Amino acid sequence: MNYDPLVSSHVSPSLPMPSTYWHSTHSCKSYPSLSDDIKTDYLIIGGGYTGLSAAITLAEAGKSPVLIDAHSIGFGCAGRNGGFVLSGSGRMALSAIEAKWGKETAKGMQGEFDGAVHLLKKRISQYDMQVDFCEGPYYKLAHNAKQATHLHNAARKQKNLFGVHSNLLSQNDVEGNFAIKNTFGGVQVDGACLHPLKLADEYARTATTLGALLYYDTPALSLNKHTDTYTVTTPTATIHAKNVLIASNAYTPKQFHVAVDNKQFPVQSSIFVTTPLTTQQRDITGLNKPMSFMDTRMMKYYYRVLPDGRLLFGGRGAVLGKHSDNDSEKARLYKAMTKSFPALDGIAMTHFWSGWVSVSFDDMPRIFIDAEPNGSLGYAMGYCGSGVSFAAHAGMRLAQRMLDEGKNEIDLSLPLYQSALPTFPFATFRRMALRGLYQWAKVAER
Ligand SMILES: Cc1cc2nc3c(=O)[nH]c(=O)nc-3n(C[C@H](O)[C@H](O)[C@H](O)COP(=O)(O)OP(=O)(O)OC[C@H]3O[C@@H](n4cnc5c(N)ncnc54)[C@H](O)[C@@H]3O)c2cc1C
């Protein structure tokens, strides 16, 4: 049975490891589970990028954080994503942020998004992280003529207002470079990719080297406040914590704590990986070096060429966790790939997997704390499927918000920090609405 945050009571340590290409090419260090009661000033729940980054920030500030995760390193999105390093998070482009909050706010948000990529690169270098980081072009491709115009206009605006450089590509440019069908032009920007599971493993190594205590196979079953401490129960121990950082993101169980219940919508994204492309397939398609792509559909397809010449192709997953590995899901995604690249029809799929991304109601992630005189409870979530660089930045910001000395570095007027995640209205009907949206996309976004 696959984990489903809206069905299962919690992530069980006995669930099988994800069957990803990443897990088949890298083994992470394992950490003990928590067996004895423990007291701490800072407890982090969730050991993906957000939680591990918060642990690094707290440990760098001289604190001794404790982190627990229900399963192993990379059980959540950190071990399942595509490895695209993007400047951005949530579902709002800078132009949309500018239209809603004004230019200064948009510039502040750009600072956070670019800061996330900068933080990632800085830590890779500072802590000598081996994560197969490779730079290469990133193409945003329009799936219809209207989107091509929109992409070009947005790119011009990004350049004028925010100094973001990009190359505008016509339909002919795209077809000249790649044998991709059904695209109407696009833009090319600088991009980068990495091995996401190695990144999680390296964050964990760094956090422990700095003095953080990590426990995996240790699910938090309940979280309650008793006068001046939070009490978290696990199957084998009780933790008393002054401050709690919730970093379980889309994998947060449906009823966990009032601060996060119904605040985000876990939605599945799926990925498959092919055998390495032959020289002939590389020549025909133009997929001949590390590069990454995303299209403009609401149900986006994203793909990249891996360092060993395989194609990684992703898109929306099944509505329910129990259907995530169905053959029909694999076939739907494979068909989308061959529609774009007819020359790859017949190439073998070697890996297929799915993961839950955390969608916020207003498309904006939040890094929020509820500060009380005797300790704080905070969370960072709602990245809407864009968190390889941003989650670690958010984890750092969450930790900084808990530290007196870190608060001054943050512009708390930005929408990321100003308010809590809005609650989903009619939360029980979220999946029904999602099914409807997928039906619409099937017709409108062919
Ligand atoms: C298929 C897919 C492709 C993606 N591709 C990209 C991409 O290419 N680029 C990009 O920028 N983003 C991508 N993303 C999104 C990105 O991976 C996430 O935003 C990011 O990894 C979130 O990190 P996190 O640490 O917040 O959450 P996670 O990595 O999901 O970690 C949450 C952790 O919390 C633990 N947990 C849950 N409940 C409990 C509990 N009760 N007690 C203890 N622990 C608990 C889980 O075991 C899990 O390890 C993708 C996501 C998916 C699913």
Keywords:
446 residues, alpha/beta, FAD/NAD(P)-binding domain, 9-stranded mixed β-sheet, 8-stranded mixed β-sheet, 17 strands, 24% strand, binds flavin-adenine dinucleotide
What does this structure look like?
There is one protein chain. With 446 residues, this protein is α/β, with parallel strands linked by helices. It has a domain at 21-81 and 197-263 and 362-433: 3-Layer(bba) Sandwich (FAD/NAD(P)-binding domain). The chain contains 12 helices and 17 strands. It has helices at residues 21-25, 49-60, 94-101, 103-126, 145-162, 171-177, 196-209, 279-285, 327-340, 390-402, 415-418, 430-444; strands spanning 38-45, 66-68, 84-85, 134-141, 167-169, 186-193, 213-215, 222-226, 229-233, 238-246, 264-274, 292-295, 302-305, 311-316, 349-360, 366-372, 375-381. The strands form 2 sheets. Strands 3, 4, 5, 6, 11, 12, 13, 14 and 15 form a 9-stranded mixed sheet that branches. Strands 1, 2, 7, 8, 9, 10, 16 and 17 form an 8-stranded mixed sheet that branches. Strand 1 (38-45), helix 2 (49-60) and strand 2 form a beta-alpha-beta unit. The longest helix is centred in the first third of the chain and has 24 residues, at 103-126. The chain is globular and about 65 Å long. The model has no long low-confidence stretch (mean pLDDT 94). It binds flavin-adenine dinucleotide. Flavin-adenine dinucleotide (FAD) binds at residues 10-11, 45-51, 68-71, 75-78, 80-84, 86, 219-220, 247-253, 269, 271, 314, 355, 357, 383, 385-388, 391.
